[in-house]
Known about the structure:
mainly alpha, 1 helix, rod-shaped
Amino acid sequence: MRRGARNGFGTLGVAVFAVVCCAGLPLLVGAGVSVTAIGVGAGLTAGLVAAATAITVLALRARGRRGACQLPPDRTKEPA
């Protein structure tokens, strides 16, 4: 009976080890992938915000230069 009891605990130990290994590795990989995905999403968002800001600044500068080149209307002359 003693030998059977020892084998029963050994089998239980192997089963617990298998469950922990098989469940733990996918859990760690999933956590790593989710952290990476969050980092990628944050990086893409920051890049899009930077691109939109740069385009807006360039458009406003071009608009300001165009307006500065035009002469104001001559108001000294009266309409005929």
